[in-house]
Amino acid sequence: PWGYIQLSPENVSGSVRGYDYSKKAIGFFTCLGHNSGFPSGSTGVLQVMPVASGTAFSPMDYQRAFSHADEKAAPGYYSVLFRDNHTLVEATASERVGMFRFTFPAHVVPLIFINDGEEFNAAIRFNESVLEKQAVKGGYLMKFAAGEQPKQIILRISVSGVSKESAERNIAVEGA
After folding, report:
1. Each residue of 48-68: b (16+ CB within 10 Å) or e?
2. CB-neighbour burial class of residue 39 (10 A; exposed 0-12, middle 13-18, buried 19+)
């Protein structure tokens, strides 16, 4: 909880931000900058979200339904299954590196939104080559090749207050 990187689902928009257990949709995951949530909620920055192909995407309006029965949370680990296309999201973090594992079913085109991380000196590394990087409002939609079997896309992300090179070193040291 005290690391520089904190991966968190967020499902509330408007003046109240953060994660509200009573809600049944997630808009995105944030990676850093979380503050105390009382009384008006807390939201982080550096947004990441797997996007269901074939849906209209706008980072400000996008939400994916989920069930708390498909959600797991423990110290150092979070997962949720989006049943619209059966994408599983798993998240964990070290002190300076966050890691997402997105498992997409066979024949589903993996799409992942990442907002522009340049202002954060962000290092963003995927385990697989991006086929297409489409600019959308506030960031990029990354497209990967669909697989004959379920496909796992692993995203390692780090930021540094010093430099992007320092964020890269964080991944080299902590993101193995």
Report:
1. bbbbbeeeebebeebebebee
2. exposed
**pLDDT tens by residue, 109-162:** 999 999 876 677 899 999 999 999 999 988 999 999 999 999 999 999 998 888
CA triple 124-53-171, angle to 5 deg: 10
Q: Name residue, tokens 């996007």.
A: 51
155 neighbors 48 (Cβ within 8 angstroms): yes
Beta bridge partners of 23: none
CA distance 141 to 139: 7
**Dihedral angle sign, alpha carbons of residues 71, 33, 173, 138:** positive
Amino acid at the residue 146? A
Provide the token pair at 161: 């207050």
| Token duo for residue 92 | 């964990």
157-168 pLDDT, tens per residue?
998 888 999 999
What does the angle CA 151 – CA 51 – CA 117 come to, to the nearest 5 degrees?
A: 100
- The DSSP letter of residue 122 is E
Q: What's the predicted TM-score (pTM) here?
A: 0.90
Q: Which two tokens stand for residue 69?
A: 């029965």
Cα angle, residue 32 at apex, residues 31 and 36 outer, rounded to 5°: 120
